[in-house]
Specification:
There is one protein chain. The protein contains five helices and seven strands; from the N terminus they run E-H-E-H-E-H-E-E-E-E-H-H. By secondary structure, the chain is of the alpha/beta class. The chain has a single domain, classed as Maf protein (Alpha-Beta Complex). Helix 1 (about 10-20) packs across helix 5 (about 180-195) and helix 4 crosses helix 5 (about 180-195). The chain is globular. Bound molecules: inosine 5'-triphosphate. Inosine 5'-triphosphate (ITT) binds next to strand 3. This is dITP/XTP pyrophosphatase. It is an enzyme of class 3 (hydrolase).
């Protein structure tokens, strides 16, 4: 079955596609579904925003839609940037500006206090009103300098081992341990169950 992925983030879509593909679920982009829209994320939790995005696209298309709301929660910043991760550096935010802002916010914070986690909440909304979600988390440490150039977002600063960031490991390795990989691993069997009901 084909599902519309309610995201305007092409790098997130790429990850979604390759993970869902491994579960035999076909992901259709908003562009392929001929949908052009900006959805306002008015929620204060990953769960709320994930539902808002999936519901909006399901309503617009009349087809089941899947959304991911994700972000980085940094211990020393009281869980920030959290649901505001994409917009952390304000108007015109880019991955580079967000990473710079994060490094500046953590200036002087020692390595042992730079713990963080990535969170992903994946929601599926069906046209008949049913919905469900799964949540995945991945612990790591915010480094003192970026490393690697694959992936997206905060990947170059997110250390998952002594010398490894999400941007320096391969995509298979990232998917196996990432917040999104974990959320989708729980999501796939639940989706099969919902499709049978
Ligand atoms: P959509 O809402 O259109 O899906 P978005 O990028 O605005 O796109 P979110 O609101 O969920 O999506 O924000 C997620 C942000 O969290 C993302 O832009 C990155 O800055 C960060 N992020 C999430 N997952 C990440 C990952 O796997 N690697 C690096 N950064 C990630």
């Amino acid at each position: 079955m084909r599902f519309i992925i309610a995201t305007n983030n092409q790098k997130k879509l790429k990850e979604f596609r390759r993970i869902l593909d491994s579960y035999g679920i076909e992901a259709v982009s908003l562009k392929e579904a001929d949908i052009e829209t900006e959805i306002e994320e008015t929620g204060t939790t990953f769960e709320e925003n994930s539902f808002i995005k999936a519901k909006a696209i399901c309503d617009l298309s009349g087809q089941p839609a899947i959304a991911d709301d994700s972000g980085l929660a940094v211990d020393a910043l009281g869980g920030a940037p959290g649901v505001y991760s994409a917009r952390y550096s304000g108007e015109g935010a880019t991955d580079e500006k967000n990473n710079q802002k994060l490094l500046a916010a953590l200036e002087g914070v020692p390595a042992e206090e730079r713990g963080a986690k990535f969170v992903s909440v994946i929601t599926c909304v069906f046209p008949d009103g049913r919905s469900f979600h799964t949540r995945g988390e991945c612990p790591g440490v915010i480094g003192l300098a970026p490393k690697g150039d694959s992936g997206f977002g905060y990947d170059p600063l997110f250390y998952v081992g002594e010398d490894k960031t999400f941007a320096s490991i391969g995509s298979d390795e990232k998917d196996a341990i990432s917040h999104r990989g974990k959320a989708l691993a729980d999501f796939a069997p639940l989706l099969q169950q919902y499709l049978k009901e």
